[in-house]
Structures are given as C-alpha cells and as structure tokens.
Amino acid sequence: MDTRTAQALVRFGLGRRGGEPLPADPAAWLLDQLRQPDQTRFDDPPTAAAGLAALREDRMTKPPPGESRSRALFNAQATQHLANAITSPAPFRERLVWFWTNHFTVSVKRGACAPVAAAFVEEAIRPHVTGRFGDMLLAVMRHPAMLLYLDNVASIGPDSRAGQKTHRGLNENLARECLELHTVSPLARYTQSDVTAFANILTGWSIDLKADPPGFRYRPFAHEPGEQTLLQRPFPPGEAGGVAALTFLANHPATHRFLAARLVRHFVADDPPPDAVRVIEGVLRDTGGDLGAASAALLTLHAAWTPGTKLRTPMEYVVASIRTLDVPPARVPNLIGIMAGLGQPLWGAPAPNGWSDQAADWAGPESMVRRVDWATGFAGRIGNRDVEEIAANALGPLLRPETRDAIRHAGSRRDAAALLLTSPEFQRR
Amino acid sequence: MHLHKTPIARRTALLGLAATAAFGRTTLALANAPTDRRLVVIVLRGALDGMAAVIPYGDPALASLRGEILPASPGQTDGMLDLGGFYGLHPALSGLHAMYRANEALIVHAVAAHYRVRSHFEAQDYLESGTDHRMTSGWLNRTVTALPPPTTKRPEGEALAVGVSVPLLLRGPAEVANWAPHGVAQPAPDLYAAIVALNQRDPVTGPAIRQGLLARGYSDSVMAADTQPKDKFAFAALARSAGEMLRADDGPRIAALELGGWDTHTAQANRLRGPLKQLDDGLVALKAALGPAWSQTAVLAMTEFGRTARVNGTKGTDHGTGTVAFMVGGAVAGGRVKATWPGLGTGQLLENRDLAPTTDLRAVAKGLLAGHLGLGAPALNRIFPDSDAVDGLSGLIRT
C-alpha cells in the first residue's frame, strides 16, 4: 500500500475494513463514490411521516421515559445508521453525509427530534451530498426535524391572522442559526433587522402533526404579511418568498466562503490553509454550489494528502476501529451507548453549531482515557488473528516502526490490538 | 454437552455492557461436563518467569544470574516462602504457600511445552491447541468432547453469542459460554504505560492521555510500569464468580481463566509482584467460593514459556523456555515440588540462556486429565495430537 492509498482510506474514508481490496487508483476510487448512486439501504427506511406519527402517538399515550415509540424508533434507526457506515463500500460518500448532517445539526437533546433525526439524514441530507447546496438547504429548512429543533413550528407572524388572534409572535431561532451557522455566517455582516426579516419570511413554515401522513405544512394564517428586506434584498410574502430567500442565501458569496472553510477544516486541517479555501470557494461559486464538484475539488488539494493532520472524532474512531478489526456491526452491542460514552452521542450535539471539527475539543484528558479504555476492551475482539497484519492492512505506510515494534512485543494479541487502536497514527486521519 | 444456563442467565444482562466496557485482561469461559469433578485451567498470558515465582534458591548459580532481583531469603522480612529447603515461593504467593502446606498445591518446575518458539502469540496458540501448530479447537474443549455422554439431563441452555472472546483453549465443538463482569477491571497499568509511551511524542494525544491517567489516580511511576493499583481485585472477583458457578450442583464443571501482565522485560522485581498477588488472591477466592466442592477440584495454571535465566540490562528478563506449572485443589496430591532440576551452572542452561526444560507440559496435562477425569490413553492422544510418546505423569491426583 502506498501513502496515497492509505490516505484515501483514512482521510477521506472511514478506515479500511479488514483486508478489503485496495483501490488501484485512490483518487479515482473516491471520485467514483461521488458519481455512483448512494447504496445505503435501511430495512425500514426512516421517514419524517413515520417519525411524526410515533411522536403523535407518544403525545397521546404518554408512555414512561425510555418506553416511547419515538425512542424505540430512534434507537433502531441510529443503530442501523452506524451499522451502515461500518459496512459502507462508499465511505467517502458516507463521510460527506456525516459532514453535512453536522453542518445542519439537529439534536435529539430536543426530545421531539428523536423520531425524525434519521429521517432528516435520509431525506434532507443524503440525497443532496453530491447535488446543489441550495437544494439541500431547502430540504433541510422544510424538514420537520429542523423545524422542530429550532422552534420554527411555533413562530407566528405578529401581524398574521394567527398572530392577531393569539397574540403570539415571532421565534427567531431558525432564522438566526440559518444565517449564522448554515449559510452566510457573520462574514456577511447581517444585522438584527436582517434576522427579524428572515424570521418573518420563514413564518408559517411548520408541521402538521394531525394530517395523514403528518409532515411539513406551510400555514398562510401564521405567515407575516408584507415584503421583507434581507441583506438589502426585497422578498415578497408567501411561501415562494421563503424559497427565494433561501436560494439567495445559498448562492451568496459569503456562504461559498464559509462552506469552503468548513469543508477544508474537515478534510484538510484544523486551521484551514487560505489558498485551499480559495480553491473550494471558487468551485462553489463557479458551479452554483455544486457539492459534488466541491467534494471532488478537495481531492485536488495538495494539502489534503498530508497524513495525520486531523484527529478522529469519537464517532470516526469507533467506526474505524470496528472496520479495522472487521467485526460485523451486529456483533458490537450497544453502538449508541459506545458513542455516548465517548462523548459524541449520535445526533446528540449539545448545541446547533454541532460537533467541533478541531482536535483540541476532542483531546481532553478524560475523553482520551475513555477512548483508550474503550479501545482496550474492544481489542478483546481480536481473537487469534495476526495483529501485525491487521495493523499493516489498516495503516500501510502510516504505521510507525515504534508502533509495529510495540505490537510485536506485546504480551498478548489483545494487548497488541489495544496498542494499534490507541497509537497516535490510528487516532488520526 | 450443554451450556450451563442458570447462573449465567442471571448475568446475561451484564454481557452487553461487559462487551463494550473495558474489563482488563481477565476473562472466564465455562462449559458443562458429565462429571462431579471440577477442572479449572488458568492461562497466564505473557510468559511467567517460573524462577521468580518458584525460586530455586538452593542452586549455587542462582545468585550470579539474578542476584539483583531476588527476594530476601526464607525467614527474613518479606522473604521467600520456603518449600522444603531448595525452592522458595515469591513472598506475594502466601495463599499458595498455605495450600502447599495443606498438601493441596503441587508445583512442577523446569516444565515447558514441546514447541520451541519465543513469540507470545504463536506460543499461546500452541499452548492452548495442545500441539505444535495452531488448531481451530483447544485441548480443554476436546477434553469435554472426550468425556462420556451425560447419563442425567442437565439444565438446557443455548450458546451465548457474547461479544468477548473465548480463549482458544476452550474453543471447539463443545459449547461454551463466557462472560466478564462489568466494571471490575481496567487495562493493566503496564498496558497503560505502553500506550502512554506510544503517544509520548504526539503533541495532542500524548499529554491528554497522560493527564487523564494522572487524574484517575495513576502516578507517573505507575505509568512507567510499576505495580497494579486499579485492577488488583479483578482476577479475584472473576475467580470467585467461577467458584460460585462451579460449586452449584447443576453448575458447569470446566472453567478457563486468563490472567495477563507477566511480560516483565523491565523492572521485574516491581512489576511481577502485582500479577503474582492477583494470581494468589484469585486462587484463594476460588477455593473459598467452591466450598465443599474444592475437594473435587483441580486447577492447572500454565504459561506459554519461561524467561531468560539471566537478568537483562533493564532489570527484567526476556523470552525463555523452562518455567513452572501450578496445580492446586482439594483433589490434587500436593505438598511437593515435582521436578528434575536441570541446574543453572555452566553448560546447564538451554542455549546458554534459558532454564532447560525437563518435563513436557503435555505430560502434566495428560496426567491431570487421566487422574482427575479418568480419561484413557486413546482419548488423551486425541486431545493432544502426536503425543503418543509422551506419557502422563502419574500420582498428580489423590486416589
């Protein structure tokens, strides 16, 4: 295995699965994943409709905590999501799904999001990771998971008929986070009046829990009447005005710069090199926000092929460990609990800005020791296999001689596997 | 051959947790067998230095080889525990010494299996396979299949597909269950120390792991591989659980335990005390938990190979050949050291470095299985392939 192949597997993928065949041309293998349709399958594909139906039932029957249909749905879907990643033959594509899911964080810390979180990934994110950013943004902003998470379901135009009648009003949460975290970012120097205007634009974007099937619903009665001005642009009232505003934000130069920096931070280095950011920004601008083109452009960055610049997050680490020891996901009990124990519960980020993409935030002493403890326990799954061979399969030339020596001189295969999984080169990608 | 269900079923709830949690380097696997005799085999992974555990202090060449790591003489403070004038037990093995004095412990010295490799992994495979190549089943599992079919029906059970691995020793056609208690053990400090060393030069993971362990109460000296504060109770807890399960009238009859921490390449005098104490505590706990069933019990503790006769440059010992095997239990004809001592003088060491083996470990195991479980030569030769020329030692078990 050459360095480039190893780098393709760990930097852009989820780690090599056991001794799976190596790509002949690493860059072509990655590009091919962008071109091929997504092969991810669920036994029972998550949908917002099914999730909201579970939520509706729970709200009527009021089951004790832990016994709700919502929670059961979440557990099953989250487990299958992780299992799919562990066995994915297109790990670069899966990494992009994770990246954009985190970019548009919804968190099950908000209980109502639990039954629709997987549906959010499958309906709003996955179909668009190689498509247009504008399409993804629109799918996200109309998805019940996002509307619930950032409170837009409760936002009512003060001068709308519902507002006049109920004296309830605006909730800016979604509008503010969409500007700050999802699109233009503070780079665009928007003001409070922009946030208010955008919140007005989004009034009426809600869900209907009583419908069959339940789902997104635009509620004209709650929509603020009148034209709104967002970043010096006028937008007409009505649902179409919201679509126009999102299209405008998706294609804003500040959005392209912000997305480029995030992509480069994720795939290149914690401190994104400015020239690399400029390349990706240019691709987004020139292609009208084509995320497939931007992803492909990442592969052309020289800096993206420098090994070991990124620390694996707990989720990346656990999935890579399981792939490396080639343990079938069904034989790893409690995947969700493992992620939570290591401080990165699936779809459970503490805040709308999602999980950090910087090593310093994951390398706290307690997190690292928990990671080490989990790895030394998981190393027991090595059985009687040759750890040196597994290490060479996983890391190729990235394996340091001192780690190979430590593996060779360990007192048991289990210790040897623990040393592989806790070595700094394995903890990086 | 059925899996024992009742006591394990009580613990199946723990299995999922155990499989995902750190549980150190001890595991327990169990199997039923149609006998009232209890057999426990302990695999000491990492190569126990037999001459540090059972010290041949009567050999005149010993002091020149290992003077710097020898405990005090018998009778002195923290001195060796005498075994009759030539051998002395390491002072950490006081429980074993009491068993020896009660004629319940038999020590076989200068023993080695018949393979001559110095790779831990290969040697452990061969040790557990019971042959000089790797097989897909272990000799203890083949022992279970060699026993006559049960005359009375034991409680039914299904094989537990649990996450933790069954040691090769007990893998094979006979069904086996295993479990590890949650939270009783964490990685041994010397593994932590190796992990700290591997990450030392990494600016991110290095300081974080070190500080994290310090916060958990590991001192820098522990991380530099000294003693074992955290999981010193783990093996005893596991051995006690094994004893409780084996004791039950309808319980399992065969257990395999593993204990690591023996690979003492550096600072052996310090590093060996912890694992020896754990082993000793485990044997005492096992005996206590077995209660009246102790009289029906034989325990064999064995390791993949011994260590060099000379101390190396870092006050440790490297991979060697001859070592000890322990047999304890109420069924064992103990109170003696069984050895043809090869000597440590000039020309007496194997390859001028290792204790020369004079007893084949298979002879010990075959003698144990013959005496304890009544297996005849044809069965024993199937359990240990290509061992027809090796006769089992007689008189290991009380009659």
Poorly predicted parts of chain A = none
Derived from helix and strand composition plus strand pairing, the structural class of chain B reads alpha/beta
State the largest interface: A-B, 47 and 51 residues
* H/E series of chain B: HEEHEHEEHEHHEHHHHEHEEEEHH
What is the CATH third-level topology name of the largest domain in chain B? Answer: Alkaline Phosphatase, subunit A
- Structural class from helices and strands of chain A? mainly alpha
Distance between the termini of chain A: 16 Å
Portion in strands of chain A: under 5%
SS field, number of helical segments of chain B: 13
Explain what you see.
The complex is a heterodimer of chains A (429) and B (399). Chain A is mainly alpha-helical and 429 residues long. Chain A has a two-stranded antiparallel ribbon. A two-stranded antiparallel ribbon of chain A has the order 3-4. Chain A starts with a helix and ends with a helix. Chain A has 3 domains: 37-143, no CATH class; 150-250, no CATH class; 314-427, no CATH class. Chain A contains 22 helices and 4 strands. In chain A, a hairpin with a 2-residue loop joins strand 3 and strand 4. With 399 residues, chain B is of the alpha/beta class. Chain B has 2 domains: 6-186 and 229-383, Alkaline Phosphatase, subunit A; 189-227, no CATH class. Chain B has 13 helices and 12 strands. Chain B has helices spanning 6-20, 50-53, 62-66, 94-101, 120-129, 139-146, 189-199, 205-215, 220-223, 234-247, 268-290, 361-373, 377-383; strands at 27-31, 38-44, 54-55, 81-82, 88-89, 105-112, 177-179, 254-259, 297-303, 323-328, 336-338, 359-360. In chain B, the strands form 2 sheets. In chain B, strands 1, 2, 6, 7, 8, 9, 10, 11 and 12 form a 9-stranded mixed beta sheet that branches. Chain B has a 3-stranded antiparallel beta sheet with strand order 3-5-4. In chain B, helix 6 runs antiparallel to helix 13 (377-383) and helix 10 (234-247) runs parallel beside helix 11.
